[in-house]
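Supplementary Methods, section 5.1.

A reviewer requested that the exact input to the structure prediction be made available. We therefore reproduce it here, unchanged from the version used in the analyses.
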Amino acid sequence: MKKISFLTKLAKEGKLQEAEPSEEIKESYIQRSNESLSSAKALLKIGNLKDSVALSYYSMYHCLLAALFGIGIKCENHTASIIILKEVFGVDNTKISKAKSDRVDKQYYVDFSVNYEEADSSIKTAEEFIAQMNDIIAKLSEEKIKEHHKTVVQLFSEEKTKEDVLKQKSKNSY
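The structure derived from this sequence is encoded token-by-token as follows.
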């Protein structure tokens, strides 16, 4: 059975690791998420559309990091965090993946433009995502925290296969 080698590689590099579930760090990332969303809205109002799109994404990403710290996982890789979102929390990661791609395009490449409607749409997408993540975070019981933590560890553990993880994931559904 194929192992989830990307996550295993990150774990070996120390970029994906177990941590104590931390209410303080979780709340700090929620605050950061709110600040990024507020800044995205302010930037939209003054016409700084590319940075508005970037901060819309970061508001989503910081909320995701809050959820990960809530279950005792520290992840320093955007792609890995987004994979974990789907594999562990069962959340469709299409919108955050697109937001990440949009952020990269708008932030790093000069040949991409963005109009007001696109930037406004990215903010609305971020608001929906954050609401969904806040709902998940609010429902994290001690039992769910332990289950999700175990599932993530299985994802990056060399001995586990994707089939093992999927069995655990079915137990974690909301």
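Helices lie at 5-12, 23-46, 49-70, 78-89, 94-108, 116-138, 142-156, 162-171. These observations are discussed further in the main text.
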